[in-house]
Amino acid sequence: MRYFLSLLLTCIISLSCSKEKSCKKTASTYIYEVNSPEETTVNQLTNLDLSLILNGCDYFYKLESKGEFEREITAKITQETCLYCTTSITETIVTYSFLAKKPGTYILKFKSSSNTHIEKQIVVK
User: Fold this and answer.
1) What CA–CA distances, in Å, run from 10 to 1, 2, 15, 21, 99?
2) What is the residue range of 108's domain?
3) How many domains is the chain built from?
């Protein structure tokens, strides 16, 4: 019986220790302002400035882009979930690098809320 309780206690401790809590979580955040040119040329890297709002535990992670002539761009952040977060709100400006390999009109849709986008049109010559 003593051996059984010892074995049971060892199993419980090892299971509880093996499930470490992750303190980082990746999430989407919203873009509230976009500064972009109206035209560019083929194969020329064009930078667009995007403004994001972050709280004390948010850190910019990356931009995700889907599509070619109509692109949806979403900002991703990393959130520290094990820390006490300050209530400070900061504006962060990040750069989206746009490169078009074909001429035409490109529609860039930057996610600005759960169901809306900021749309920018860039003509590539």
Assistant:
1) 14, 12, 9, 20, 57
2) 25-124
3) 1
Which amino acid is residue 79, in one-letter code? Q
pLDDT one digit per residue (tens) for the chain, 125 residues: 554 444 434 444 444 444 456 788 999 999 999 999 999 999 999 999 999 989 888 899 999 999 999 999 999 999 887 777 777 888 999 999 999 999 999 999 999 999 999 999 999 99
Q: What is the pTM of this model?
A: 0.78
64 within domain boundaries:
yes
In whole angstroms, how far apart are CA 64 and each of 29, 72, 94, 110?
11, 8, 13, 10
